Amino acid sequence: MTTPSTTTRAEYCVIACAEAWRDNGEVLASPMGTIPSIGARLAKRTFSPDLLLTDGEAMIVGLDGATEGWLPYRQHLAMVTGGRRHVMMGASQLDRFGNQNISCIGDWARPDRQLLGVRGAPVNTLNNPVSYWVPRHSPRVFVPKVDMISGVGYDSAAAAGPSATRYHRIPRVVTNLGVLDFETGDRTMRLASLHPGVTVAEAEEATGFPLVRPDEVPATREPTPEELRLIREVIDPEGLRDGEVPV
């Protein structure tokens, strides 16, 4: 097995992102960000071979980037609304129930800062599984209450009723410090694992609300030698992952 000293923080993040798509079957993987994209390709090459990957526009692509099929917008939307896509989005803010904000900071009527806008976040979160990737875990991102709900969290979905909860699921949140999930009785955020070298105190200090955590927080799993080879030599030989999470 590979030892922690030979695996970079970015590579642990890749592994944690890849695990989001484990056992997903034939669904459309929609990663947003360099490390999630590497993770999706790693998942397809190893434990989730049925994943569908796209070029981000209108084509389904294979492992070598060659076009394998056409995915027109109408068909893409059909997959979205049927729960057959798993997105990994970013977040400017996330709260303890998984509500996400990518729209604005401050009051909506007069924001301090304008961001991307709501975009497709409501449709994504209500119609197919959505995980999140946060390359810089900090209290500015993990806040007690988001300034505006773009992506729907567990409490908001429950308040809206069965039509909102049918396909709603947030499998995991991956950050540069560890992995969080919502496997709790009240669907509040839990510290599921820490990347090697990160302490519980560091994760808690970087989070703006109390995290549920077990007595012993496990470490993010080690990549296998073959996974490391694929990351370093096949999927990301240019080392773009280290630009998103420095060594």
TrEMBL record:
SUPFAM superfamilies: NagB/RpiA/CoA transferase-like. Keywords: Transferase. GO terms for molecular function: CoA-transferase activity. InterPro entries: CoA_trans_fam_I (IPR004165), NagB/RpiA_transferase-like (IPR037171). It holds the Pfam family CoA_trans. Belongs to the 3-oxoacid CoA-transferase subunit B family. PANTHER family: ACETATE COA-TRANSFERASE YDIF (PTHR43293), CHOLESTEROL RING-CLEAVING HYDROLASE IPDB SUBUNIT (PTHR43293:SF3). This is CoA-transferase. It comes from Streptomyces chattanoogensis.
